[in-house]
Amino acid sequence: MTTWSCMNLQDSASPIMEQLIFFHDHTLMIVTMILVSVLYFMTSMTINKNVNRYMLEGQTIELIWTIAPAVILVFITTPSLRLLYLMDEIHNPTMTIKTIGHQWYWSYEYSDFIKVEFDSYMTPYEEDNKKMFRLLETDNHVTLPMNSFIRIIVTAADVLHSWTIPSLGIKADATPGRLNQSSFMINRPGLLYGQCSEICGANHSFMPIV
To answer: What is the pLDDT of residues 31-42, one digit of tens each?
Structure first.
């Protein structure tokens, strides 16, 4: 999970999140190259005192700065679209879990089993317990298998919510009267933390997911 002074994304716990981190770094590199180039051109034009009357118009340079951004956009959109389709793909799931957003806690149902359902409330913070994360601990954790495709069905009972686990690269909107589905695969063991990412009321920030 994210700690103080952590400037990067959380460590990935799924293949999709690994790809998202790669895409982030890829795009950041392109943006950095553009920034450095523009700063260099601006600085050189400011410092340079030479005047050339043939520089009033230049068909070649105009052609270059029209085509270059289009080529750069292709390098950004190609991996982006690939990732979007990968994230939307629902493989043959090993198991299905249904999560329902309430004000302000989550309910879970293991659809593949009979009568396996529970509510997950935030645990009040105890200052004596140094191992406890404030506003992130819950009384009931969701237990899921590793290296298995898991389908999650998300809905809400009252207002808009959003079931989000950053290290899994998953963010599914919970809308009343609507079922949204997503899938992921956990590729390492551990505790994964998340919170509701929708402004859903007074206790919006107190809907942790573990």
So the answer is: 999 999 999 988
